[in-house]
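Q: For a teaching session next week I want to show students how multiple molecules come together into a single three-dimensional assembly. I've collected the sequence lines for a complex. Could you give me the predicted structure tokens for the whole thing so I can convert them for display?
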Amino acid sequence: MFKKVSAGEKLKCTHCGDECPEEHPIIDGRHFCCNGCEVVYSLLTENGMGAYYNFEENPGISRRSALRKNFDFLDAPDVVEKLLVFREGRIAKIILKLPQIHCSSCIWLLENLSRLNEYILHSRVDFVKQEATITFDIEGISLKKLAELLSLIGYEPELNFQKLEESKSLTRDRTLLYKLGLAGFSFGNIMLLSFPEYLGFAEADFRFYLGYINILLAIPVLLYSGMDYLRSAFFALKYRQINLNVPIAIGMLTLFFRSSYEIISHTGEGYMDSLAGFVFFLLIGKWFQQYTFSAISFDRDFRSYFPISAHLKSGEQWTTVTLDKLKSGDIISVRNEEIIPADGIILQGDARVDYSFVTGESDPVVKNKGDKVFAGGKHLGPAVEILLTKSVDQSYLTRLWEEDSFSTDKDANTQTIIDRVGRYFTLTVLAISLATFLYWSIVDPSLSFNSFTAVLIVACPCALALAIPFTYGNILRILGKKFFFMKSVRTIERIQSATHIVFDKTGTITDHKTMELIPVVENLTPSERVILYTIVSQSNHPVSRAIAHFLGNSGLVALDYFEEYPGKGIQAGTKEHSVKLGSPLFITGKQDQTHQKSVMVEIDGKVKAIFNTVNKIREGVPELIDSLAKNYKLSVISGDNEKEMSRLKAVFPAGSTLLFNQSPADKLQYIKILQAAGEKVIMIGDGLNDAGALRQSDAGIVISDDNNNFTPACDAIINARVFDRLLFYLTYLKKAEYLIWGAFVLAFFYNTAGLYFAVRAMLSPIIAAVLMPLSSVTVMVYGVISGYLLFKKMNSDFKHLNTRPIHLQKEDMKTNLNPFNV
Amino acid sequence: MKIILYLIIISITVAVGFLAAFFWAVKSGQYDDDYTPAMRILLEDDMIENKSENN
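A: Of course. Below is the structure for the complete assembly, covering every listed component.
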């Protein structure tokens, strides 16, 4: 049922909210932008699930440009077996990543899947992780059918080679929660039992019973909740190093043994409440710092870019096998838009291979029979047969993952401020405690033991240890709301020390979705410009828009006819002139190797203009580069050839290094060379070809056009829409170091106050019980508030960036992100 | 004052019960996803229409 709508009337698709084109399907008086959306609507309403459209407006995912993905590989039993988390008889369970989940309607639809197919028994959505756990009867609905059903309603499961190799264990690490719960429990109870003591109510015989209970409550805190700190300090000492965990462990042990001694010898009531509180606060800091962006993956390698399986020729038959089984000598078939899984030689057919993601080359290359192709390229065109010369792991691109950089743990090797401060701190504390001990040994030996341990107790750097988790943990959250996602708190410290920024070109500095024109020949008269402008403004093709932008508004004339040929060009004309524009093949009728990516304009049979099309430099990038150059050294390493050298030279200041024709391994090597010269490097890239450099660099930042894109392993991800705010974010992170020093000053203030009592042998349990939580809470509150205030201040310093609006996308709705407000 | 001691022991026993309940809750996965349940509660159970009504 199609209906024409008068021009000017803008209708939104009931399903996805996109604008409906002139001709569109209408059902039950509701409008749809395409047949795909209409099919989903019919399917849902027929199954009594029309309520899907009630809680949110236009909740669906546009089906207009959706490709019907082929899930044939899910018929292979070994693939199915590896993907399922559980199977018993007919009942199977799978966890699928559905990156399209974005609103409450999604949850409702996916949790009511059983309405659409009776063999789906149960489904449960984890909204933040964008995962659905589905239990189904595998003999009633195969995994392939399930994936097809999900794709049909707009949730195409993310299935890739990495998914196949991941461990399927369902249990996650919950130990921190157990430890935290236990410490909180003991803290509360010990505090309660010590209360009579604080107020001086307890009677002599009775208080010691309470003391024994306190010991019992404190033992699990020390041995279970606090074990990580003791262990870390032990290993540090074993390797003759001092980190902040050493004074923490000394403090904890001193607290425990002195308190036990006092209680058992009936000489005092001990400081068990301080011990439990201390561990409790430390664990809260740990928990706060461990914040992760569940929906974002920071450690993908090539395997998650590659498909699960390939079509292998065995004899005269074609079978589906998983990629790990492919070996050199196999013959496989690669279809349109599929990724070539391993290096090989084309046996049959012609391929156009898009290597932009793998090598950084921006133009697709034509490969004919007998030519070599490399793993990772995307094949465009009819299916080709390829004879493999390498296995998947041994291919040109994938061998990169054998480099050492991929096996070192960057976080573990980061020298943080706290490590440096911790060393001096520990030595100072030990010196003060010894001095106190010596002083009292001479003056009044009965107090020497008391004051010595008291110094070790109050000097325990609890507040100091909370400074980084709270201040940086909060910054991680603030920037996450502004589309800059960091993997861990340690990433912040590595970004702060950076001196050199290295950029990739294709996809990083340039945007592969928008075009710009460079005129090669241009002999258009003013009247011809008007006609051409009229024609291109009728079309939505990126090249047409680029031509319209190039001409500027030249006015409009009446067109006699207009015809657009998808993939070729446009033929149009007025009463007097006829115009053809499009690819050289479309205009001249022959393949032109030198002008592969150019557009020709022919007016009345004469070629009047030739434009080269290049990817546009991202909006705001020239200004960004300009301001970055004031603070950092800059380089560009591109896998592309030198044809855009002059364009980049105009953007980058003199003195920046521009390197072209760099292989993925060259890029990694370049970073190593910079690091050997003492530079701290931030690498900014987007593709698999940058994976080595991203990994080797001190902080690898990936630019991503939307949150669901493939991103190689990195330390941080920045959304392309806020790329021009990069300097703002980097400066913010750099200034955050002052916040840490501020927190240190606060912590030292409390430590000094405690020392004042301790050295005079006047530290009573109540003073310790007040000082410790007070200092910890002060530092926590300071850490959270100062991060917000600094951001607010910087936001007004960088006000000029706010003039360009950031378009919120559908998936941003769920977190209510607004990059302009704190 | 001895009665206080008994009370304390009872209160700690009860508290240990709550601690066990917390451990059980963590173990059964109640803390794994702290966001979706909050959205799920807003969805009504009776929103599924009967096929006949719809036609």
